[in-house]
């Protein structure tokens, strides 16, 4: 995600890195490189001009030229500009650009999901429902996309996956009628949030807009969220502007954000539309749906990482009590193969390893997906899973006959089983050293826990 943009900004900062004093020439060269990076990222031209002009204006001020560390000050200026253009407020670390404005639990809140066909509107409706459910709300999905074939069925399948009910009317022709039926069901069963999946077209047309306006007038929604494909670059901002002018938007959801290597949509939206980017889809799973944090994304673009998001992901899958017990085991060298298997599975639940590495400061753009040996992880899990619990809790009993059985059961070789056990023994010794040092090298510890190279 955003790897190319990160690399371009890193290259641009080389013009001013390590300089005791920055000249206007240094600034001009760095800003020119930033401008090219933004244009290649498919950022709206007007947005690029505003970004470049405001950066030059501030960077050429005496505050920077007389700064103790002008290079770092210039990076901070660029960082703050990015945060602002992404819709955030510089200095508010980790703050989401803008949350949903929903009513209290005793009143039904209505969310209208808008967008073109193929933008991920139906999937995003379900993802949002799951997120609100986790936050303690009681959502109901309404299938009001009566145009796209299988849209109702798709929403029904997604609803079943996340255990959120879907209101639908087979053979219905009017989305307003379906909405009224969904609202009646919501009142009857005390649902507090009604999420409406609306009709979409391959392109904006008057028929679609007229239908959406009718639905908006009937539902009087608390939120009108446009779902846009981040892969379309600045075109996503243009689509959002048209929807806002015709219907009115309260915010935007960007899908396929994990695949957006350019970033033009995210950087253009706020300036072009004035509307906040509220959520991003970061994968195919229902849980891959996150609030948009301008400060964190700016940090990722500039290669500063996003440790806060990494910690949050870890907290979702790792129990605090279990983590404390694990630390004690590492210190006493009683960490077992069964513990290792559990850690491998926890890392898998956190998502793509490359995504996690990109959140570590300085790692963005340094590791390619092809550099990660996914097969090695699969082999490790297969070998560990083929062992009995008794063997995982005491690896010393794994002799030649047991190794042969484990290799056969995991589809690997006896030599691979032997290498894994040797790696584990070396890793356990290293873990003890790291914990005794106060875990001063968490990156090394993380690499060991996932069976990384070098251990």
Topology:
Blueprint: H1 3-13, H2 24-40, H3 45-59, H4 62-65, H5 70-85, E1 109-114, H6 121-134, E2 139-143, H7 151-162, E3 166-167, H8 175-188, E4 193-197, H9 206-219, E5 223-229, H10 234-246, E6 251-255, H11 264-273, E7 277-281, E8 289-291, H12 294-301, H13 307-317, H14 320-332, H15 337-349, H16 353-358, H17 374-386, H18 389-393, H19 400-410, H20 414-436, H21 442-449
Parallel strand pairs: 1-4, 1-5, 2-3, 2-4, 5-6, 6-7
Antiparallel strand pairs: 7-8
Helix pairs in contact: 1-2, 2-3, 3-5, 5-12, 6-7, 8-9, 10-11, 14-20, 15-17, 17-19, 19-20, 20-21
Instruction: Please compute the radius of gyration using only Cα atoms.
Output: 26 Å
CATH topology-level name of the largest domain: Rossmann fold
Order of helices and strands: HHHHHEHEHEHEHEHEHEEHHHHHHHHHH
Determine the oligomeric state from the structure: single chain
Q: What portion of residues is helical?
A: 55-70%
Largest sheet strand order: 3-2-4-1-5-6-7-8
- Give the overall shape: flat
The counted number of beta strands is 8
Number of helical elements: 21
* The first-level CATH class name of the largest domain: Alpha Beta
Structural class: alpha/beta
Annotated CATH homologous superfamily of the largest domain: P-loop containing nucleotide triphosphate hydrolases
């Amino acid at each position: 995600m955003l790897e190319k943009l990160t690399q371009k900004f890193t290259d641009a900062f080389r013009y001013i890195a390590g300089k005791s004093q920055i000249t206007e020439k240094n600034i001009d060269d760095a800003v020119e490189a930033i401008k090219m990076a933004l244009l290649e990222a498919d950022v709206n031209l007007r947005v690029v001009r505003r970004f470049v002009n405001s950066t030059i204006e501030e960077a050429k001020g005496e505050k920077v030229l007389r700064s103790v560390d002008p290079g770092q000050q210039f990076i901070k200026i660029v960082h703050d500009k990015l945060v602002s253009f992404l819709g955030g407020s510089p200095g508010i670390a980790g703050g989401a650009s803008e949350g949903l404005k929903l009513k209290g639990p005793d009143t039904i809140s209505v969310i209208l999901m808008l967008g073109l066909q193929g933008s991920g509107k139906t999937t995003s409706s379900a993802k949002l429902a799951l997120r609100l459910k986790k936050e303690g709300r009681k959502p109901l999905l309404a299938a009001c996309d009566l145009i796209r074939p299988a849209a109702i069925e798709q929403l029904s399948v997604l609803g079943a996956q996340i255990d959120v009910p879907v209101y639908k009317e087979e053979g219905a022709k009017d989305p307003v009628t379906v909405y009224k039926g969904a609202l009646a069901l919501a009142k009857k069963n005390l649902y507090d949030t009604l999420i409406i999946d609306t009709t979409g077209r391959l392109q904006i047309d008057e028929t679609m807009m007229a239908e959406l306006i009718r639905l908006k007038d009937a539902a009087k929604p608390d939120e009108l969220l446009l779902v846009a494909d981040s892969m379309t670059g600045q075109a996503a901002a243009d689509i959002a502007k048209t929807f806002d002018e015709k219907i009115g938007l309260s915010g935007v959801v960007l899908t396929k954000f994990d695949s957006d290597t350019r970033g033009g949509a995210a950087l253009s939206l706020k300036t072009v539309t004035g509307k906040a980017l509220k959520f991003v889809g970061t994968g195919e799973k229902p849980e891959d749906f996150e609030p948009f944090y301008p400060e964190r994304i700016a940090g990722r673009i500039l290669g500063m990482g996003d440790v806060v998001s990494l910690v949050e992901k870890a907290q979702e899958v790792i129990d605090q009590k279990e983590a404390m017990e694990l630390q004690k085991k590492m210190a006493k060298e009683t960490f077992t193969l069964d513990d290792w298997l559990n850690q491998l599975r926890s890392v898998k639940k956190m998502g793509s390893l490359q995504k996690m590495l990109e959140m570590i400061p300085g790692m963005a753009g340094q590791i390619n997906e092809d550099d990660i040996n996914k097969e090695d992880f699969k082999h490790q899990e297969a070998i560990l899973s083929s062992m009995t619990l008794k063997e995982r809790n005491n690896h010393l009993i794994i002799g030649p006959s047991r190794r042969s059985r484990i290799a056969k059961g995991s589809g690997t070789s006896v030599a691979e089983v032997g290498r894994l056990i040797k790696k584990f023994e070396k890793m356990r010794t290293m873990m003890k050293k790291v914990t005794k040092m106060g875990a001063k090298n968490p990156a090394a510890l993380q690499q060991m826990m996932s069976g990384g190279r070098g251990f």
